[in-house]
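Our platform keeps sequence and structure together, in a single record for each protein. Nothing more is needed to write down the fold, since each code stands for a local backbone conformation. An entry from our holdings is shown next, in its original layout:
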Amino acid sequence: MFNTSASKSENTYDAILVGAGIMSSTLAVLLHELDPDLRLLVVERLSSAGLESSCAKNNAGTGHAANCELNYTPIQEDGSLSTTKAFEINKSFEQSLELWASLAEQGKLIPKNFLNKLPHISLVFGDKDISLLKKRFSKLSSHAAFAQMEFTKDHGELKDWIPLIMDGRKKSEKIAATRIQRGTDIDFGNLTRSYINQIEESKSIEINYSTNVENLEQDREGDWYLSLKGAIKNRVVRSKFVFLGAGGGALSLLQKSGISEGLSYAGFPVSGKWLICDEEKSTKTHNAKVYGNAAVGAPPMSVPHLDTRWIDGKRSLLFGPFAGFSSNFLKYGSKLDLFRSIKTTNLFSILQAGLDNIDLGKYLLNQLIQTNEDRIETLKRFLPKVSPDDWKLSIAGQRVQIIKQTSKGGVLKMGTEVVTSSDGSLSALLGASPGASTAVTIMIEVLNRCWQEKMESSKWKNKMLELFPSIGTDINSNQEALLSIRKRNDFLLKLI
């Protein structure tokens, strides 16, 4: 692979980013803002950007800020409620808003093309869950980050918040909800394309669509060589830095790279399905993202929610997700992806994770045998007066949950994880939710790990401060700083 053509200037880059989804496009924008002269190559196997997990119909688009997701405040073994993850995710999403606000201020992003303000609501039924929701509300709302959270059990007030959900519900039913009006719906596919459109005019950036990375290998000097198979031509390219942001496809490429840090990882794919309603009366009546509790054994990405969504500017309602199984690691991938990923270095981890997650297996089996009538019956929990003919089934994106070898053996992890080579020359992002919403924070982590010397330079520090006025400040402990940056973000993104 180390051929002379790869050493030619036209085939040599400062960074090669694999995948043109929300992760790689975010990193490309950050690198370009920090140094417009960096020569970047973005490689995408599909015909356009943001068509896999970033596509609006393939993800929840919530703008995860822990405003409504109950799984971000889990109950501990001693009965206490943990808020650590909620505050971390809330802070990360605020950092995403901060970047978008900076780019909007410079005229490089148009917020209305991908972002809409929308209340975030948590909804529970029965005394036990109402008690837990009240506990969550009390703990979170005492902090500035969630001070605007409201709580109610009153049917009249709930009728005002979620009229479609309350229609036809018995007055005797025990039900409660919390609401934060400063929530968002985000079309991450459109955001990805906005990023790409912003940077692709630059002469220093090249984007190759319909191009697949067949292999990658590092030479003794630390340079990476990637073998590319394109629709028009094949070639070998070279760079000192590679980012694998190819969604579910990142694991296969990480394994091909041969770095020791990636050897013990495995993945388990879970597909998703939505029920979608475009009927105008319903889409105009429901105006919120409403999250419930996950079923026993269900992964966090399967928490049921009824969402107002703007997809390519059109307003719809989505309910789900319902889980399915496919051995693909990508929605438009190969049925052999899972089997090819099984190696001697991760086989034990896979087997142990399977034995430790019997409930998840039962949950997936139950989801696989569901009929459309079963799915409509689940929807009735949210919409007692649902009209089945108004709802159509749509296949969502593919998620690959991480299986990682730890001191406790193989562990199934539900979040996102950055894997970096010891020399910082290669970084890969594995995992699923809440990745898209926290992409900015994750990519800053990649920069700090892999571009440490540059990040410590005065030039890059000053530029980061321009993009992120709150950088270096812990807005979770400095509530005055939090309110200040929120005021700025709200104004520039027109969230007021």
Observations:
- The first strand starts at residue 12 and ends at 13.
- Residues 84-105 form the longest helix (22 residues).
- The chain has 16 helices and 21 strands.
- The CA atoms of residues 260 and 477 lie 37 Å apart.
